[in-house]
């Protein structure tokens, strides 16, 4: 996983913010346990039919060309049925409303208001068969955060259950091919706003050769690159638990070791949170999240990658240290 950039001051600010958020969350949790408003789900009726009708009109104009006339999916994923619900289960409704407001329509110049976003959520709920009520869904993060999607079992098919393919590469190649480039894309948010217009090269400036980063940025928007990087980290992390995968020195990776599993699960959780931060389209929010990503990388490196020898500072680039990797210390 990627070495952490030299952003100590920024990271310290992120750690302070993270501690403040944790304390705030604990206070809110304690308050909720005593104040005792029963949690609600979308099954309880949280929108009105009139609100869903407004959302339908917005959907036809802004969303149907990508998601289909009946939300069934087309160029973009469906907004109904299991494929949609399996990614939402247990989440607060605020996450969907904020995703719509901050990131949709994809690549469009139109920016939806908070009210339009919750009207669209109402249309999605009505189309999905959820009941209406006499009270509109409020365009308020706190209120939306108290309403959750129900938890539903995710169906699996016999054809895909239990299939494991032998790894082609080793852990170092997996790190260099997936984890290094994608984590560094995310770290770059500390100094570069993905939402800023890309810089154009000066006329007549010599070409520096092919750059896969520049090529990708020319196809996908800046924030979409960060989304994709976080998703890659989350969905590729289970590969570190593949039976039979080896380290660069040929030693079998300790995929059943309790710490190895813990660090892998930590990376998955942090990558998912980074993706949620990216959905805010806010540079500071993602920049603060890079501290947790850096810690997740370092925790595993310090246990399994860095070579500890008396009187010497660990050097991950020292070839002589590779023999000691993938062994807990």
Molecular structure report:
With 329 residues, the protein is mainly α. It folds into two domains: 39-148, Cytochrome Bc1 Complex, Chain D, domain 2, CATH 1.10.760; 166-198 and 211-324, Four Helix Bundle (Hemerythrin (Met), subunit A). The chain is 50% helix and 1% strand. The chain has twelve helices and two strands; from the N terminus they run αβααααααβααααα. The chain has helices spanning 8-35, 49-62, 64-67, 81-85, 93-103, 114-127, 141-145, 171-187, 212-219, 222-236, 258-278, 283-304, and strands spanning 40-41, 147-148. Strands 1-2 form a two-stranded parallel sheet. Helix 2 packs across helix 6 (114-127). The chain is globular and about 65 Å long. The two termini are 18 Å apart. Mean pLDDT is 81; it is low at 1-36 and 156-160.
Short overview:
With 329 residues, this protein is an all-alpha fold. It is 50% helix and 1% strand. It has 2 domains: 39-148, Orthogonal Bundle (Cytochrome Bc1 Complex, Chain D, domain 2); 166-198 and 211-324, Four Helix Bundle (Hemerythrin (Met), subunit A).
Task: Give the strand order, joined by hyphens, for the main sheet.
Answer: 1-2
Radius of gyration: 23 Å
Tell me about the largest β-sheet: 2 strands, parallel
Q: In oligomeric terms, what are we looking at?
A: single chain
Element string (H = helix, E = strand)? HEHHHHHHEHHHHH
CATH architecture of the largest domain: Up-down Bundle
Number of domains: 2
The global form is globular
How much beta, percentage-wise?
under 5%
Weakly predicted, low-confidence segments: 1-36, 156-160
Structural class: mainly alpha
- The CATH topology of the largest domain, please? Four Helix Bundle (Hemerythrin (Met), subunit A)
Distance between the termini: 18 Å
Number of strands: 2
Mean pLDDT: 81
**Briefly, what CATH class of the largest domain?**
Mainly Alpha
How many H/I helical runs? 12
Helix content: 40-55%
């Amino acid at each position: 996983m990627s070495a952490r950039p030299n952003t100590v001051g920024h990271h310290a600010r992120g750690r302070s913010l993270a501690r403040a958020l944790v304390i705030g969350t604990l206070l809110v949790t304690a308050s909720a346990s005593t104040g005792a408003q029963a949690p609600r789900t979308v099954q309880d009726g949280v929108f009105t039919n009139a609100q869903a009708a407004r959302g339908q009109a917005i959907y036809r104009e802004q969303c149907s060309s990508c998601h289909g006339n009946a939300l069934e999916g087309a160029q973009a994923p469906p907004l109904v049925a299991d494929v949609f619900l399996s990614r939402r289960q247990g989440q607060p409704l605020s996450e969907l409303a904020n995703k719509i407001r901050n990131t949709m329509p994809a690549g469009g110049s139109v920016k939806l208001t908070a009210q339009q976003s919750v009207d669209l959520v109402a249309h999605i709920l009505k189309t999905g068969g959820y009941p209406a009520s006499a009270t509109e869904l409020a365009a308020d993060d706190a209120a939306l955060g108290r309403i959750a999607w129900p938890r539903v079992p995710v169906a699996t098919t016999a054809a895909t259950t239990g299939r494991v393919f032998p790894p082609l590469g080793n852990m170092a190649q997996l790190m260099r091919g997936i984890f290094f480039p994608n984590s560094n894309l995310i770290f770059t948010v500390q100094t570069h706003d993905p939402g800023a217009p890309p810089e154009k090269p000066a006329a007549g400036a010599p070409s520096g050769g092919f750059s896969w980063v520049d090529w990708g940025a020319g196809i996908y928007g800046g924030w979409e690159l960060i989304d994709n990087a976080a998703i890659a980290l989350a969905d590729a992390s289970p590969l570190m638990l593949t039976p039979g995968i080896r380290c660069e020195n040929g030693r079998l990776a300790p995929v059943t070791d309790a710490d190895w599993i813990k660090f892998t699960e930590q990376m998955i959780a942090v990558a998912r949170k980074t993706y949620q931060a990216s959905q805010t389209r806010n540079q500071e929010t993602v920049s603060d999240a890079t501290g947790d990503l850096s810690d997740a990388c370092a925790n595993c490196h310090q246990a399994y990658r860095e070579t500890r020898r008396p009187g010497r500072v660990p050097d991950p680039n020292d070839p002589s240290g590779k023999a000691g990797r993938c062994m807990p210390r």
